[in-house]
Design a protein that fits this description.
Layout (H helix, E strand, L loop, with lengths): L1 H13 L17 H11 L4 H14 L16 H16 L1 H14 L6 H25 L5
């Protein structure tokens, strides 16, 4: 066992130092207030892109670099809750069950008064309205 570990150590040492992918980074220590201001002023840009822009200006930034934007932050608790509600609405199969009842009523397979039919159709419309409102609140495009 120790012989193979010696061989591995020799191979690792003989490879030489690993090459750096790019130039070394520059570090600057900031106060919390300075960091908060920098983050606020960066807006949609990443911190690195904003600092590069401030240090080198618009014309001086490297043309080979792609435009950086800050990654979106995690969704708000309201959006998470709306997403769970929409998922629960889909998993509950309420809409499908109401649709089945409405079809049976229209087909005459179930004795239904005009009042009951209106109530079932109103429930279907209400579920569809909930879905539309939840999707709109999430900002999701429906296929």
């Amino acid at each position: 066992m120790s012989g193979s570990s010696n061989v591995m150590a020799f191979k690792k040492a003989s490879e030489g130092p690993k090459k750096r992918k790019g130039p070394p980074p520059v570090s600057v220590r900031l106060s919390e207030d300075e960091y908060a201001r920098l983050r606020r002023d960066a807006g949609v840009l990443s911190m690195a892109a904003y600092i590069r822009l401030k240090v080198f200006g618009e014309e001086e930034t490297a043309p080979h670099r792609k435009a950086y934007t800050r990654k979106k932050t995690s969704p708000s608790s309201e959006l998470i809750m709306i997403g769970h509600m929409l998922g629960g609405l889909g998993e509950s199969e309420i809409a499908a069950n109401l649709n089945d009842i409405a079809k049976a009523a229209r087909a005459g397979a179930m004795p239904v008064s005009p009042k009951l039919e209106r109530e079932v159709l109103a429930a279907c419309d209400a579920v569809q309205d909930m879905k539309v409102r939840l999707v709109a609140a999430l900002g999701v495009k429906v296929r």
